[in-house]
Amino acid sequence: MSDPASARDTRDRVRSRTRSAVDVCQVALARLEAVEPRLHAFNTVIADQALARAEAIDREPDRWRNAPLAGVPVAVKDNICTCGVRTTASSKILETFVPPYSATAITRLEAAGAVIIGKTNCDEFAMGSSNENSAFGPTRNPWAVDRTPGGSSGGSAAAVAARVAPIALGSDTGGSIRQPAALCGIVGLKPTYGRVSRYGLMAFGSSLDQIGPLTTTVGDAAILLAVLAGRDPADSTSAVDAVPDYSAALTGDVRGTTIGVPRRLLEQGVDPDVARAVNGALDVLGSRGATIADIELPHASYAIPVYYLVATAEASSNLARYDGVRYGLRKSAETLGAMYSMTREAGFGPEVKRRIMLGTYVLSAGYYDAYYLKAQQVRTLILRDYEKAFERVDVIAMPTSPTPAFKLGERASDPLQMYLADVFTVSANLAGLPAISVPCGFTPGGLPIGLQLTGRRFDEAMLFRVADAHERDTAWWSAQPPDFPAHA
Amino acid sequence: MLASAMPSEITRERIAAIAALASLELDPAEVELFARQLGDVLAYADEVRKVDTTGVPPTAAVGTESRLERDDEILPCLDVRDVLANAPDVLPAAGLFRVPRVLG
Questions:
Q1: Which of A225, A227, A358, A400 could form a disulfide with A452 if both were Cys (CB 3.0 to 4.6 A apart)?
Q2: Is residue B93 in some structural domain?
Q3: Per the CB < 8 Å rule, is B53 touching A239?
Q4: pLDDT for residue A415
Q5: Is the omega angle on the peptide bond into residue A152 within 30 degrees of 0, that is, cis?
Q6: pLDDT recorded at residue A421
């Protein structure tokens, strides 16, 4: 009972009525039930709602004849609001929260014919790189269940890697789509800042957050982004720029394309297996006609500290809303102030508190200029480095993560060590650029490795073009976790 | 730049003051832990303070300059009953959230 088909294949069969949406949904739910005890990828499963929705799609074939995701099962990260379906951000403070509205990404998915099957586990409020910060226990990596799936969108990545659903939504503030995609051997895209509406995404770092796709193929990521992208009056930062036909970019032709590699940045701290796999991917693209060029990103080494100053400052402000008044947990107290602080103390986990503390610290009087303002200035320098590089190259390539999946518990007691896992991903968020992670190999021990490609603002089409060309000449994307075999 | 911004000197008193600003009722063990961990992270972040940023403007967000305005139209909004449904303590008839006494 399993379903390795892509979203494209599934929707084509549903649209041509060679397969019912109900059958697709039943297979996905059975698969979910079979793997979930070992993975813990989901916080909430909505089997009855999903089946009812699939039946409705089967009843109205004309309505869904051209729907880009007709009958396709989707797993949704649990920090994206779904009307009437519990949405917790994997936090005790929102354990019982049922949103009265849906995120724009969700209404767009539904309009495209998708069938949401459940809400996926993640680091609490998307703060983490391992899923170990979930208040409900970590998700496990399908390739090695004693290891992290990455984070914070680890549940979405594990669900797709284990072929529960062909596609999932994640959110990415500093790598939270791309890093779990890399560690789970799938495709993950962080769109350009503003490309996808953030309305209904629980805010973490508002100048950094983006919703994006996790898929098994580049083609499915292109289909899903086309569904999600576009102006939304409910998000003033959503871009008015036209949404191109992303699937048209999948030509396999990368002749005339220049791929920049920041060699100096990669000299230290990259696992040798990761370096070998990324070089292999560059060879593949080179043999398809792309030019590989060395570039410099002189300020990239400051990206981690800049990110953790900016993101925690924004988080400390955004998470002020969780105060026990309008939703979620409340701890009773005599005074309003005591009620706030006791509720927050009981409701937030250690990493969330740590980041609120750090963010409050860097914004506090006497420290604002030294840390927050300074970080924003260095953010400008990081942005300029990329602008300069993109005068010469079309895409920048590097590993998504410096290491393959690490063991659960291995870094949990050292926050700084955990933050360093984001060294190659945070720059794209700081610079507002699109970046994709695609599978590019395995360690000798069988752990997936991801290649990250970063592009110019709003040039996701170029990322898809290059990533798809790589996919055509490799088979990494089709590999499935041996302990979770899925044969049609 | 302030001499007092040396992160290695984050005291328990400073952590308690930050916790009060953040509305967090930390227990003594957390105060101890965060004093150490914030010190570690900020010591690492001190690298950033060495960068020459003379004349460099700050970036708060990328590419949002032209997107901020829209027509001021009245549109449907959430039903008050739906909004109150998640709250721990409400006065439904009045459409209000209820909290502990603020004024004496």
A1: A400
A2: no
A3: no
A4: 87
A5: yes
A6: 87
Per-residue pLDDT tens digits for A388-415: 999 999 999 999 999 999 999 999 888 8
CB-CB contact of A121 with A90 (8 Å)? yes
Q: What is the pTM of this model?
A: 0.97
Examine residue B11 and state whether it is found in any structural domain, yes or no: yes
Domain harbouring B38, CATH code: 1.10.20
In this complex, the residue of A334, A337, A357 whose CB is nearest that of residue B34 is A357
ipTM of the complex: 0.91
From the candidates A90, A176, A401, A437, give the one annotated as an active-site residue. Answer: A176
Give the Cα-Cα-Cα angle A33, A36, A42 (nearest 5 degrees): 105
Of residues B15, B45, B63, nearest to A457 (C-beta): B63
Please state, in angstroms and rounded to a whole number, the distance separating the CA atoms of residues A178 and A183. 9
- A217-273 pLDDT, tens digit per residue, is 999 999 999 999 999 989 989 999 999 999 999 999 999 999 999 999 998 889 999
Using the Cα atoms of residue A433, residue A126, residue A327 and residue A335 in order, give the sign of their dihedral: negative
Q: Give residue B21's domain range.
A: 3-49
> Is B65 a member of any domain?
no
CA dihedral A343, B31, A320, A93 (to 10 degrees): -40
Question: Do the domain assignments include residue B99?
Answer: no
Distance between A327 CA and the closest CA of chain B, angstroms: 4
- How many Cβ atoms are within 10 Å of A267's Cβ, its own excluded? 9
**Architecture in CATH for domain A7-263+388-478:** Alpha-Beta Complex (3.90)
How many structural domains comprise chain B?
A: 1
Per-residue pLDDT tens digits for B55-88:
999 999 998 766 667 788 898 999 999 999 999 9
Q: Does A358 touch chain B (CB under 8 A)?
A: yes
